[in-house]
């Protein structure tokens, strides 16, 4: 069950403008449940993900945040036995419709993971690779520079583009992965604890990057760092499990300002104030 | 419960504020007694409390800032720290106004008074003291239903304010009192009206603490709900 203010309910995911070119889309999730075999991990989530906004997902470990976010670009179903029910619309397109190609969906809804995972290729090729295999026919140099600039990494790597991606620091590698995601020109970027393995300075750079990214993309981030959610997001969803073994639920979803100043539900208050458990 | 030490620090801070409130309340009690009995000596004993209250208020502000810096409070914790600082400001200001009144009482001891005006002042002082004490009690017990009634009680102070000002502008035939006393009485009327307002605001701050709503919004919702019910 989600708790959303009236204003929030009235807002619908729509198209936003994108300085990079095309339009940016929001997502509309309705009654989404996720399974691992017969085990229901997430149940009945409905959420409007606004275009050109950062939506943060918080909650205790094991409450289904990562499972949920992986349903937003059909990554969940790559795990044997895993499946999702309900509907997820990217703009007007149901991403689970029979004619939706999961590969195309994953290009349009990119993902950045907890640990930086660059390819064992040069910095340049890390960024260019996805675009190349997707048939990109434009100016590759321009695409690589634009993507690295959007990921706030260009100034640090512009003179060493041929070096291995592994030569970068952890924080730089994560921003390289963000640049790699941006290079295939997605509309939505999903981030699953993108800064949890990084030092505070690198974390700050990722957060600054996200503030810029939302001007051109729709961003959804899973984080265990509640201050990070409070700092960077426009909307926050709190996931919660009532009893051990139950599926995770979207317990409260509202403006970030509301969640961190005056949440509606006691469990949300207990969690954000650290009284949980 | 997790964050036990943080909770203890919050409880301790609230305890500091309540202690300060009780001391200011004691000052107001002395002010009322000095006014009722014409006891200039009692009024004189209150001189200097203002500085002490300001120092205590600064300590609360400092402790609150340190907690914000170290504990990154959100939601109810954040509202509590915000409210603690707001309430402290009302307490310190009330203490300062009480001292100003005691100063006026001490300096005009023995001066000829207008009996009607003096009676209005005493009634106003008692009412302002009661509102202050009730505001503090509402904060201590988070009893926000009473906060909604406090505004109505403040209306009595506003009526007494008008009555006193009318007597100052239009002295009775029985005797206008010494000019210096009349001038000081005008200031005391104003100070008492402010003390009552601080009491009301402490109640209003408690509404925000408990509900996250400004009392004006809460009152509006309450009134709108009643209108709908009448329909």
Nutshell version of this structure?
The complex is a heterodimer of chains A (277) and B (231). With 277 residues, chain A is of the alpha/beta class.
Largest sheet of chain A: 6 strands, mixed
How many beta-strand elements of chain A?
10
Give the class of chain B from helix and strand content and strand pairing. mainly alpha
H/E topology pattern of chain A: HEEEHEEHEHHHHEHEHEEHH
Largest sheet of chain B: none
User: What gap, in angstroms, lies between the N and C termini of chain B?
Assistant: 47 Å
The coarse overall form of chain B would be globular
Provide the residue-averaged pLDDT of chain B: 90
Spatial sequence of strands, sheet with the most strands of chain A: 6-7-8-3-9-10
Task: Summarize the SSE layout with pairings.
The complex is a heterodimer of chains A (277) and B (231).
Chain A: H1 6-10, E1 27-36, E2 39-49, E3 54-58, H2 65-71, E4 82-90, E5 93-94, H3 102-108, E6 109-112, H4 123-133, H5 140-150, H6 154-157, H7 170-183, E7 188-192, H8 200-213, E8 218-222, H9 226-232, E9 235-240, E10 249-255, H10 256-261, H11 266-272
Parallel strand pairs in A: 3-8, 3-9, 6-7, 7-8
Antiparallel strand pairs in A: 1-2, 1-4, 4-5, 9-10
Helix pairs in contact in A: 4-5, 4-7, 5-7, 7-8
Chain B: H1 4-37, H2 40-45, H3 49-71, H4 75-107, H5 115-141, H6 144-169, H7 179-211, H8 215-230
């Amino acid at each position: 069950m989600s708790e959303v203010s009236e204003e929030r309910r009235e807002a619908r995911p729509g198209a936003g403008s994108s300085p990079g070119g095309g339009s940016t889309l929001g997502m509309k999730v309705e009654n989404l449940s996720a399974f691992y075999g017969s085990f229901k991990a997430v149940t009945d989530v409905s959420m409007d993900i606004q275009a050109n906004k950062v939506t943060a997902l918080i909650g205790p470990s094991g409450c289904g945040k990562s499972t949920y976010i992986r349903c937003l670009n059909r990554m969940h179903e790559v795990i044997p036995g895993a499946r999702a029910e309900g509907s997820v619309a990217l703009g007007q397109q149901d991403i689970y419709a029979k004619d939706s190609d999961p590969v195309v969906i994953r290009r349009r809804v990119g993902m950045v993971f907890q640990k930086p995972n660059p390819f064992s290729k040069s910095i340049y090729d890390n960024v260019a690779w996805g675009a190349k295999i997707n048939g990109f026919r434009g100016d590759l140099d321009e695409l690589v520079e634009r993507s690295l600039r959007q990921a706030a990494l260009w100034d640090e790597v512009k003179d060493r583009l041929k070096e291995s991606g592994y030569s970068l620091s952890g924080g730089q590698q994560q921003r390289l992965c963000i640049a790699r995601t941006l290079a295939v020109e997605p509309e939505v970027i999903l981030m699953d604890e993108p800064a949890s393995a990084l030092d505070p300075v690198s974390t700050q750079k990722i957060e600054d990057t996200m503030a810029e990214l939302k001007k051109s993309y729709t961003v959804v981030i899973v984080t265990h760092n509640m201050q990070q959610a409070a700092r960077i997001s426009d909307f926050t969803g709190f996931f919660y499990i009532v009893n051990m073994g139950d599926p995770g639920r979207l317990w409260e979803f509202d403006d970030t300002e509301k969640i961190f100043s005056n949440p509606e539900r006691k469990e949300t208050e207990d969690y954000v104030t650290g009284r949980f458990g | 419960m997790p964050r036990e030490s943080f909770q203890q620090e919050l409880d301790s801070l609230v305890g500091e504020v309540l202690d300060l409130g009780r001391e200011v309340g004691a000052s107001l009690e002395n002010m009322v007694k000095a006014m009722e009995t014409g006891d200039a000596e009692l009024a004189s004993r209150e001189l200097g409390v203002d500085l002490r209250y300001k120092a205590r208020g600064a300590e609360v502000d400092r402790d609150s800032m340190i907690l914000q810096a170290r504990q990154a409070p959100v939601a109810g914790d954040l509202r509590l720290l915000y409210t603690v600082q707001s309430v402290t400001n009302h307490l310190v200001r009330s203490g300062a106004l009480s001292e100003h009144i005691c100063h006026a009482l001490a300096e005009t001891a023995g001066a000829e008074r207008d009996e009607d005006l003096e009676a209005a002042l005493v009634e106003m002082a008692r009412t302002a003291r009661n509102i202050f004490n009730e505001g503090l009690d509402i904060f201590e017990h988070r009893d926000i239903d009473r906060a909604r009634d406090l505004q109505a009680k403040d209306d009595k102070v506003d009526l007494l304010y008008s009555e006193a000002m009318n007597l100052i502008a239009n002295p009775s035939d029985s005797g206008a009192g010494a000019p210096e006393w009349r001038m000081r009485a005008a200031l005391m009327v104003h100070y008492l009206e402010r003390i009552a307002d601080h009491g009301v605001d402490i109640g209003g701050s408690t509404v925000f603490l408990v509900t996250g709503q400004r009392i004006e919004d809460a009152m509006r919702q309450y009134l709108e709900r009643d209108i709908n019910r009448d329909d």
